[in-house]
Amino acid sequence: MLSLRRATREDVPTILWFIRELATYEREPDSVVATETDLLRDGFGETPYFHVLLAEWSGEPAGFAFYFFQYSTWTGTPVLYLEDLFVTPSHRKRGIGLALMRRLAEEAVRANCKRFQWAVLDWNEPAIRFYESLGARLLPDWRTARVDGDALEALAKRSALS
Question: Which residue of the set 49, 67, 81, 131 is catalytic?
Answer without folding.
Answer: 131
